[in-house]
Amino acid sequence: xxxxxxxxxxxxxxxxxxxxxxxxxxxxxxxxxxxxxxxxxxxxxxxxxxxxxxxxxxxxxxxxxxxxxxxxxxxxxxxxxxxxxxxxxxxxxxxxxxxxxxxxxxxxxxxxxxxxxxxxxxxxxxxxxxxxxxxxxxxxxxxxxxxxxxxxxx
Length: 154
Hints:
Blueprint: H1 3-12, H2 16-25, E1 102-104, E2 122-124, E3 126-127, E4 146-147
C-alpha cells in the first residue's frame, strides 16, 4: 500500500484514531485533499493541521474537534457540517461555504475568511478574533454568540 493510499483510505473509512496515529508518525508528510469528496463522513477529532484541502466537499461532515490549524482550505464546501470545537487558527479558508453549519466553539482566530458564506449557520462562542472577514456573507451577529475582537469586517 502506498503512503498516500494508507492515509487516504483511513480518512475515507473514518478510521480517525488510526489516521491520527499514522499522522503523528509521519508529521512531515504533505497531505493534499484538494478536490476530494468527503460529504457525510465522520472526521471528528481528525488531525488535519497544515494540510492542503482546496475545493473539497466536506458538506454534512461531522468535524467536531477536527484540527485544521494552519491549513489551506479555500473554495471548500462545509455546508450543514458540524464544526463544534473545530480549530482553524491561522487557516486560509477564502471563498468557502459554511451555510447552515454548526459553529459552536469553532476557533477561526487569525484566519482568512474573506468571501466566505456563513448564512444560516448556528453560532455559539465562535471565535473570530483577528480574522479577516471582508466580504463574508453573515446573518446578523450578536456579541453573545461570537467573539469579534480585532476582526476585519470591512
